[in-house]
């Protein structure tokens, strides 16, 4: 093989592993988080990751950075398979034990809350990548103290307030009903979405206030986005809809039930859902081009011999 062909072949072969590496390194698509009652991470994203309005969300950013809020729909355990309690230590339930989201585990009594009351409740879970699986939502026990680290023992695990298996996503949300018991003051709802087609699971904390406890905290009005953000229809039945990372106005705070139940006020990611597919597509094209070029190099001497006959 001529020296020039050898050099090209080495270069081409060298790109193949890089292409395969790019395929393996493509980021996984994120999946979702409660919109009503709004989760901590969704509320903080809605307030604006760079300059959140509430003191609690500001503290979360100071502790864990802004990227956690941009990744609002990715609080997950890849190998959960129902072993949430064994894998997530006390004090780290809201982050699901992920260091990236550690700011959500901060012990504070001023996290923005959704106002609720005992009785039937319609839960809305914002989904950006639908999967089959089961949702279970747990409420903290009477006597829950938000000034202490959240522990598994704080949750009434024997009596989930909502359970739903394979709900159908509509308008970008899974919607299912449950029943909230009578409580007073500030409480917390812990949601676990365990996939049935994978061991992966998603966890989240939603701060709620039943009233009458003297602990309600009204969030500061979140900023209004200059332009709506859309997740390119990934997991959204209506790709034309868009959701602003605003969180509402002074009259309609982001965490009020009426706001949380409206897709116009729910947190939505600013990331481009096409990114992983572009990365994989580019890597595949690179690998295919490498194979074609290498094949042409192997055939070129034969063409030369035929021309010489």
By CATH reckoning, the class of the largest domain would read: Mainly Beta
Overall radius of gyration: 24 Å
Low-confidence stretches: 5-29, 214-309
Task: Figure out the total of helices.
Answer: 7
Tally the structural domains.
2
Characterize the structure shown.
The protein is an alpha+beta fold. The protein folds into 2 domains: 3-24 and 277-308; 30-272, Coagulation Factor XIII, Chain A, domain 1, CATH 2.70.50.50. It is built from 7 helices and 9 strands, in the order H-E-H-H-H-E-H-E-E-E-E-E-E-E-H-H. The strands form 2 sheets. Strands 2, 3, 5, 6, 8 and 9 form a 6-stranded mixed beta sheet that branches. Strand 8 (186-195) and strand 9 form a beta hairpin. Helix 1 (3-25) runs antiparallel to helix 7. Residues 5-29 and 214-309 have low confidence and may be disordered.
Quick description:
The chain has 309 residues and is an alpha+beta fold. The chain is built from 7 helices and 9 strands. Helix 1 (3-25) runs antiparallel to helix 7 (275-308).
Provide keyphrases for this structure.
about 300 residues, alpha+beta, Coagulation Factor XIII, Chain A, domain 1, 2 domains, six-stranded mixed beta sheet, three-stranded antiparallel beta sheet, 7 helices, 9 strands, globular, disordered C terminus
């Amino acid at each position: 093989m001529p020296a020039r062909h050898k050099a090209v072949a080495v270069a081409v072969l060298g790109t193949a592993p890089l292409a395969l590496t790019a395929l393996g390194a493509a980021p996984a698509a994120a999946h979702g988080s409660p919109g009503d009652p709004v989760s901590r991470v969704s509320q903080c994203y809605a307030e604006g990751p760079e300059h959140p309005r509430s003191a609690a969300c500001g503290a979360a950013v100071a502790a864990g950075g802004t990227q956690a809020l941009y990744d609002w729909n990715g609080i997950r355990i890849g190998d959960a398979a129902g072993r949430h309690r064994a894998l997530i230590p006390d004090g780290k339930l809201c982050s699901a034990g992920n260091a990236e989201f550690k700011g959500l585990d901060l012990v504070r009594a001023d996290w923005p809350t959704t106002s609720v009351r005992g009785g039937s409740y319609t839960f809305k879970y914002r989904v950006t990548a639908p999967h089959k699986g089961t949702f279970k939502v747990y409420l903290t026990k009477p006597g829950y103290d938000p000034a202490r680290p959240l522990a598994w023992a704080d949750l009434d695990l024997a009596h989930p307030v909502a359970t739903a298996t394979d709900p159908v996503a509509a308008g970008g949300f899974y919607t299912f009903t449950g029943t909230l018991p009578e409580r007073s003051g500030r409480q917390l709802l812990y949601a676990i979405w365990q996939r049935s087609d994978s061991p992966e699971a998603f966890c989240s904390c939603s701060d709620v206030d039943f009233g009458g406890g003297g602990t309600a905290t009204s969030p500061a009005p979140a900023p209004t986005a200059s332009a709506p953000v859309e997740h390119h229809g990934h997991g959204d039945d209506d790709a034309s809809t868009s959701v602003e990372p605003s969180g509402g106005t002074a009259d309609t705070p982001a965490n009020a039930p009426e706001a949380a139940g409206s897709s116009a006020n729910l947190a939505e990611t600013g990331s481009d859902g096409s990114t992983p597919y572009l990365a994989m597509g580019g890597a595949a094209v690179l690998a295919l081009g490498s194979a074609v070029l290498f094949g042409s190099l192997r055939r070129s001497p034969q063409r030369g011999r035929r021309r010489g006959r």
